[in-house]
Amino acid sequence: MDQPMRMKNNGQINIVLSSQKRKGLTKEMFDTQVVPKAIPAEHTALKEIEEELSTLVGMEEMKRTIKEIYAWIYVNKKREEMGLKTEKQVLHMMFKGNPGTGKTTVARMIGKLFQKMNVLSKGHLIEAERADLVGEYIGHTAQKTRDLIKKALGGILFIDEAYSLGRGGEKDFGKEAIDTLVKHMEDKQHEFILILAGYSREMEAFLKLNPGLHSRFPLVIDFPDYSIDQLMEIGSRMLKEREYLLSHEAEKKLKDHLIWVKSVLNPPSFSNGRYIRNVIEKSIRSQAMRLLMQNQYDRHDLMTIRSNDLVYEEMNQ
């Protein structure tokens, strides 16, 4: 049976029929099949989150996924209003990627979006790591984990480096934390959202520790490393926000350094946007010391980071 094909064209999704199906159809009839890409004006919550997302460099897959989640929730509400069956909306997520790729920032934005959509009552973010969940004796871990979940009710519980919960072996209390999380993900699935974050490979291994984990995270978002140009753009935005700028020589020196770090050194500890932020903050302090010694404070000098001001982070290879 002839099936329609979908083809993207100029930012729209067009329904393209086979030649047999096209017979007898006018251009006007075809125009009605075009699905516009523009978002209707009434979706203020999505427009607000889009404005925030636009401040982030790259992350195209993540931005698209956030819009799809919004559409999915919104359309399910419309189906419910019409008495149609709706999917069970499980919104627990997994963020996979290296440090400094924006995972915590995006989690905070998602909390705001879901609060505006009445999916979460508060939309706040509770950040946690292994030490916040794992106790020192039997029963202590479950209580600590329950206390954290209680604080996160109405918002998001964000656990970074979540794979560390499974690194201690069978006798480690991390397994107790995992089991407690799994239970409350089901019991309180509409009262809070759990986001687990960490390195991609380690997170895949972590999912195998409990048979119930994988199916409870329908939303998996990858956060790729930034490219050289994206890192330079992040640095430029940070400097602009602080009312600084790089001299031409400093810009070239920083870019050459990033090329060397990512292409030659390629350290596992490279922290992407966090690395750029640390370089900028150290370089600003270095510039301040130079100006102090030179006793030179005109507007251009106060704003300009020169090549000799740049201070790079130490990295473990």
From TrEMBL:
Keywords: ATP-binding, Nucleotide-binding
SUPFAM superfamilies the UniProt entry points to: P-loop containing nucleoside triphosphate hydrolases (SSF52540)
GO molecular function ontology, one term from the record: ATP hydrolysis activity
Residue span, AAA+ ATPase domain: 89-227
NCBIfam families: spore_V_K
Family, similarity comment: Belongs to the CbxX/CfxQ family.
Name assigned to this protein: Stage V sporulation protein K
Organism in which the protein naturally occurs: Bacillus methanolicus (strain MGA3 / ATCC 53907)
